[in-house]
Design goal:
Structural class: mainly alpha
Number of strands: 0
Distance between the termini: 57 Å
Helix content: over 70%
Oligomer: single chain
Number of helices: 31
Shape: globular
Length: 655
């Protein structure tokens, strides 16, 4: 959670808590420290804090230089990145959870920090010598490789968590025990080749992700989040259950940039959750709405929380292709949540905010220039510029916009904050990507990839649904302890190839499938970090909030299966204009039917059998196909007629 997010939280909660009981920043910190590794950080004050602040800022300046102007080889760039990430991790994350004394760092952490980064810097200093050695690395290189790998694993335990570490350990043990590989061979492949720690995940992280995180930090500093919230208020704040609809729209806009479900929940939720509670929504529902919408921000084109850039690298597809194919699934996801809060508002008899309380468009339109960084970034990538260059130019435009924005002016302190936050945000993702490299190289060097495909095909009996279900479980479990961006990289390296090669799925469908389920882990019990953050603000039970969020985001559990079976939903294959229009209309009606069934309201309260029928009918309409569409539509029309007949009977009885 960044300093800017904390500031927003502190300011907004004070304002809104007059009308609704909501949590404070301390409540959010407490629940995040309990469940989220990234929230357990050391406390630095005074001069040590300033030193670390400027060191992180310098790190990000160095990353910009390295990506734009340095002519070093890929191995050198990646090793430098990992070395600095390991070093800073020990200055940020303590050895265990709990209260940490200010300005306190044990001697063993200093030793680990130095020992952990030395192997990577040694690789840089002796690059030509190590490359010339090949697999015949010496004793010194073996020892340094072991130290570098083990210290990276400790960084993972502190900053990311155990799930991914357990997976990586199992793969390494398989290399030793299952395949009988020598220590020298394993260390060489894991530490010194571009298939291991400094493999594709770190390559992606040290370029696209790092620079995009920097872009996001500076974009946040421009005040664009508040602009998105104001626009959402002006657009739908007046409608029935307006504040919840504002949460859906604003979180979709903010979340596509932030790349963090938790961060987005805190930033926009500090404004929207008190408004929802004040309107009459139960606390657990208010927190769930914000968590579900904030999590979905990462599937929202054109940015998709950096996933679009990474997916382009992992699949070989153009960025523009990916964002176009992601439009309909994202639309259906947010439509499902939007309609869910609409039916809930109708059921509870909730009204919107008074129009005089809402922002005026004539005051908002002059601030449209705040969107320039997003426009420049998207335009440059679509125009064929490299993603690294596009992110840097987008950052420059964000800084310029911040300077001219008189309401939230970019100051030297904010400039350093942007660099510092960009550096901090690189740590957990960088570590997870390094561990993902270990998993990837073990699969490759042991030949386990082919065996996994064989095992999954056997276990599923060649049934695609079972293979998809097993993949979904893996994504959700791993997503409980890994940042969503890193989770996608890991699953794209491990599970997606199984679906592509073993089950003959389209490469984009497979990648989007694992991406969706890696993200929804943030709202899926038992560890649902975004839902827990929303619950802390709403002063509601965390688990109850998580179950509500899962129910609201049901589209995210349905849509991936649909486009896995029928690629037309992601516009793959022979798709005509009529076909696309048919899919959009039927899927929209389907999501309305599903949302109505889950919320228990259509024209008035639904009986249990009508709710089941509506959900079933909605599922039929979401599945592309003439027969399924007509069958689902028939169910929806039948329930509508039944509801109207019941209304007439009730009106007559009242007379």
């Amino acid at each position: 959670m960044t300093d800017a997010e904390k500031k927003v939280m502190d300011e907004e909660v004070v304002v809104e808590s007059v009308d609704a009981e909501v949590g404070t920043m301390e409540d959010v910190d407490a629940i995040m420290k309990k469940f989220d590794r990234e929230s357990n950080t050391r406390v630095w004050e005074g001069t040590p804090k300033l030193i670390l602040r400027y060191m992180l800022a310098a790190f990000m300046v160095f990353m910009v230089y390295m990506n734009l102007w340095a002519t070093w080889s890929g191995q050198i760039r990646r090793c430098l990145f990992v070395g600095f990430v390991v070093l800073f991790t020990f200055f940020i994350y303590p050895v265990k959870k709990g209260n940490v004394k200010p300005n306190s760092m044990p001697w063993y952490d200093i030793v680990l920090a130095v020992a952990g980064c030395i192997p990577y810097f040694y690789y840089v200093a002796n690059f030509k010598k190590i490359v010339a050695m090949g697999i015949a690395i010496g004793q010194t290189e073996i020892i340094l490789g072991i130290i570098g790998t083990l210290v990276l694993a400790e960084c993972c335990r502190r900053a990311v968590g155990l799930p991914i570490l357990v997976v990586a350990t199992c793969f390494v043990l398989y290399a030793f025990v299952g395949r009988g590989m020598s220590l020298q061979l394993v260390v060489y492949n894991v530490f010194y080749t571009t298939n291991g720690i400094i493999g594709t995940p770190i390559s992606v992280c040290s370029t696209y992700i790092a620079l995009f995180l920097l872009f996001g930090a500076f974009l946040e500093a421009t005040g664009v989040a508040n602009f998105f919230i104001d626009c959402a208020n002006a657009l739908v704040g007046w409608a029935s259950g307006g504040p919840a609809k504002v949460a859906v729209v604003s979180s979709a806009l903010c979340g596509m940039v932030s790349g963090s479900s938790v961060g987005n929940t805190v930033t926009t939720g500090s404004v929207t959750i008190p408004m929802m509670k004040r309107t009459g929504y139960p606390g657990e529902f208010a927190g769930a709405v914000e968590a579900a919408a904030s999590t979905g921000g990462q599937i929202m084109p054109p940015i998709m929380g950096a996933a679009a850039f990474i997916m382009a690298e992992m699949t070989g597809y153009e960025y523009a292709d990916i964002i176009v194919r992601a439009i309909l699934p994202a639309f259906l996801y947010f439509l499902g949540i939007f309609l869910g809060v609409h039916f809930k508002a109708k059921k509870l008899g909730l009204v919107g905010l008074k129009r005089e309380e809402l922002p005026k468009w004539k005051l908002l339109l002059p601030k449209i220039y705040l969107l320039l960084p997003l426009i420049v970034l998207t335009w440059m990538v679509v125009a064929g510029q490299t993603m690294a260059k596009s992110a840097i130019y987008g950052t420059i435009v964000a800084i310029a916009v911040g300077i001219i924005n008189k309401d939230d002016r970019m100051t030297p302190s904010k400039f350093v904050n942007g660099l510092e936050n960009g550096g901090k945000n690189c740590l957990s993702i960088g570590i997870a990507c390094g561990i993902a490299g270990i998993i990837s190289v073990c699969i490759t060097m042991t030949g386990l990839g082919g065996k996994l495909i064989t095992y999954v095909v056997k276990l599923s009996g060649g049934n695609l649904f079972i293979a998809l279900f097993l993949t979904m479980i893996c994504c959700i479990i791993l997503g409980m302890g890994v940042p969503t961006t890193a989770n996608y990289i890991i699953m794209a390296s491990t599970c997606a190839p199984i679906l592509i090669n073993g089950m003959s799925m389209h490469i984009l469908a497979a990648n989007m499938f694992v991406f969706y389920f890696g993200i929804v882990a943030d709202i899926t019990p038992p560890v649902a970090l975004a839902a827990y953050a929303g619950a802390a603000i709403a002063k509601a039970p965390p688990m109850k909030t998580a179950f509500n969020a899962t129910r609201l985001a049901i589209a995210a559990f349905i849509i991936p299966y649909i486009f896995a079976y029928n690629n037309a939903m992601i516009f793959v294959g022979d798709v005509t204009f009529f076909g696309v229009a048919s899919i959009v209309i039927s899927a929209t009606l389907g999501m309305a039917s599903i949302a109505s069934g889950f919320m228990g309201y259509l024209i008035h309260d639904l009986k249990w059998y009508s709710r089941i029928a509506l959900v079933a009918g909605g599922l039929l309409m979401v599945i592309p196909g003439t027969v399924t569409d007509l069958s689902g539509l028939a169910v929806l029309v039948a329930i509508l007629l039944i509801q109207k007949a019941e209304n007439k009977r009730e009106q007559k009885a009242a007379l």
